[in-house]
Write a structure and sequence with these properties.
The chain contains four helices and 23 strands. By secondary structure, the chain is α+β, with helices and mostly antiparallel strands.
Length: about 325
């Protein structure tokens, strides 16, 4: 009886593991290369796919081959073997991650090396980054999610942890972000607008919806604030100031979508005249504030400087 039970348990575990195994490989690197095998145990570039592309895994085995490039051959590189558009390719292990679904960072996420607050890496993964979510781990009042993502600084895949509140597993959120990236990479204005309209029309989560709105404004080079939100105010003088003395961007339009047309040296605490503001606010770096239209002022006369710096400044830098 015990032998039968053990056998049944083993079969059940095998079945569960078989179904749990990933049948897909998610490309994490943008314009991630797909490579074909040559006749000398090497692989060479064939085509590229966008980040978030789902590839069919032909095998869970890791293949070790030579990576042949135009300038150099790299020995003993690890690859996955996949099917894409009915063709067989090899994908570098450091560019992709086995998974049956894609996730997206829905709010700038602090990175942790372990599922504990004390392992903070002094790094942030930006909103809109596509990734693969793995297991969740709870610690006190925080739930961490283990993720795989492509580190564009070092050019390889990273495994880190983020707060579960910063990540979305929604298919619509992921598709909207991919549409946004397609628009960003497309040179045709008509196709660009079509991608953006499709991304904006999807019923995404509030955080991704706001991200799509702001990024769409940047791509189209228009303000993310409506004309109704911009109001004239009783003018007053103020100072441009930051906590670290860094330069402050002055933009042609309110919001980060506006082109940077000048910079104030906040270390000098320049005087400005404030004449307009947005009634709506924006969150930047954890600070929520309106945008203000300012004009550079002569410190001695307090009069607006002819041909001085003027434009929109984020409210957090106005004192």
């Amino acid at each position: 009886m015990k032998k039968t039970l053990i056998l049944f348990t083993a079969i059940l575990l095998f079945t569960v593991n078989t179904f749990a195994a990933s049948s897909k490989l998610i490309m994490l690197r943008d314009n991630g290369p797909l490579r074909r095998a040559n006749e000398t145990n090497g692989v060479e570039w064939a085509t590229s796919v966008k980040a978030g592309t789902e590839l069919d895994l032909e095998s869970t085995q890791i293949f070790v081959k030579d990576l042949v490039t135009a300038s150099k051959t790299y020995k003993d590189v690890k690859f996955y073997k996949v099917k894409y558009n009915k063709n067989t390719y090899y994908v570098q292990e450091s560019d992709a991650e086995p998974s049956n679904s894609v996730s997206v960072i829905q709010k700038d996420a602090l990175l942790f090396s372990k599922p504990t607050l004390s392992s903070f890496r002094n790094a942030v993964l930006e909103t809109g980054t596509l990734c693969v979510a793995q297991e969740s781990v709870a610690e006190f009042n925080t739930t961490f999610v283990k993720i795989a993502f492509y580190d564009t600084n070092d050019g390889l895949k990273r495994i880190r942890y983020v707060n579960s509140e910063n990540i979305s597993n929604s298919d619509k959120d992921v598709k909207a972000v991919i549409l946004l990236e397609n628009a960003r990479a497309n040179e045709s204005e008509d196709l660009k607008k079509e991608f953006l309209n499709n991304a904006s029309s999807m019923k995404t989560s509030p955080l991704i919806s706001e991200y799509i709105r702001v990024e769409t404004a940047k791509i189209l080079k228009v303000s993310s604030f409506s004309d109704d939100s911009i109001v004239s105010i009783d003018g007053y003088t103020a100072h441009i100031k930051t906590t670290d003395g860094s330069k402050v961007n002055v933009r042609s339009l309110p919001g980060t979508a506006g082109e940077v047309i000048g910079k104030f040296e906040s270390a000098e605490e320049p005087t400005v005249f404030v004449s307009m503001k947005t009634e709506d606010t924006e969150e930047i770096g954890g600070v929520t504030a309106s945008w203000y239209y300012v004009s550079q002022v002569d410190t001695d006369t307090l009069e607006v400087v002819n041909e001085g710096i003027e434009g929109w400044v984020f409210g957090a830098f106005i004192e």
